[in-house]
Amino acid sequence: MISLDDIYKVIVATVPLYVALILGYGSVKWWHLFKPDQVDAINRLVCYFTLPLFNLDFTAHSNPFKWNYKFLAADGISKVIIVAVLALWARCSSKGSYCWSITNFSLCTLTSSLVVGVPLLGAMYGQLGIDLVVQFSVIQAIVWLTVLLLVLEFRQSRSDFPSTMNCSTSVVRNPPQVHSLESSRNDLEGKVINIDGLGDDNRPSLWCLMKVVGKKLLANPNSYSCIVGIVWALFACRFNFQIPSIVDGSILIMSKAGTGTSMFSMGMFMALQEKLIACGPKLTMFGMILKFVAGPAAMAIAALVVGLHGDVLRIAIIQAALPQSITSFIYAKEYGLHADVLSTAVIFGMMASLPILIAYYAILQTLHSL
């Protein structure tokens, strides 16, 4: 059975997150200390400095050669399960759609892993919990958020090309007649020639889409902070190097503020919304079921398939129930795809996550002791 001391440790680790959240909310909503443009400036501080350095700090100090690749395989399989279910739903149900499948995938799988996961899983399972959350967050940032961005770009390009594309694509209309020794066909006038990036149906090629996605990822320091961190970790662990103390200290002084400023920024974001539940109660309940039930259930199935057991199995299930990724909302807003649903998932999920995650922890520990 789980003890009250165990629950108390989790509460001690997570309540400070909510204190920062409430302070951010109150600074805008109650005390009117910040105007919207000032909130935007603070968000930029978090986005471009404290959170990327927070990610870099944890990633660079990990050891990729000792990662639990069964755990990461379970994460990948769980996402395949969810994609398969969503594809079947979109194909067979009258309510199914490609657009809702994208949003539902985000709700089921993308979590605020480092900001909430590190203190929470650290309190529950110690260093093992922290290590696994870091591994998950790196793969999410490098792989799954990239996949999400690629899918969103593809969706938008189908209806809005070429205005959404920023790659070097040229379309020449009414070209002059071309004479060739190998071809006598000179009936090209009035046709569209796709030079770089367009297929025969005037849709962008995969390479062109990847160029756009790459540019957007490079504009997001949270993505390449994980890439830089993992490259350094591989190099340092392979050749037994350590980060110079002056560099490590420079990263640490900002990364220590990562959790607090991120939660403070989340509170400010909540205060600026007209409604905390922007999408209505039905969609909110649907989103919470996907977030806190469907995602962990898929992870539990995948974890059992690859043979996870003990604390690693329990960590895999709990981390799948962490609150919604803020990045997924940012992408949803940018691409105009159910931003109200993702906004509600971020806000309501953050408020509801503490009791739900403690319940998961208690249930899993109890099952373990039986």
From TrEMBL:
Q: Its principal location?
A: membrane
**Which terms does the record give in the GO molecular function aspect?**
auxin efflux transmembrane transporter activity
**Keywords linked to the UniProt accession:** Auxin signaling pathway, Membrane, Transmembrane, Transmembrane helix, Transport
Topology relative to the membrane, per the entry?
Multi-pass membrane protein
On the tree of life, the source organism's domain of life is: Eukaryota
Give compartment(s): Membrane
The Gene Ontology biological process terms listed for this entry are: auxin polar transport; auxin-activated signaling pathway
| Recorded GO CC terms | endoplasmic reticulum; plasma membrane
Residue intervals passing through the bilayer: 7-28, 71-90, 102-126, 132-152, 224-243, 249-271, 283-306, 344-363
Q: What does this protein do?
A: May act as a component of the auxin efflux carrier.
The family line of this record is: Belongs to the auxin efflux carrier (TC 2.A.69.1) family.
Q: What is this protein called?
A: Auxin efflux carrier component
Provenance organism:
Chenopodium quinoa (Quinoa)
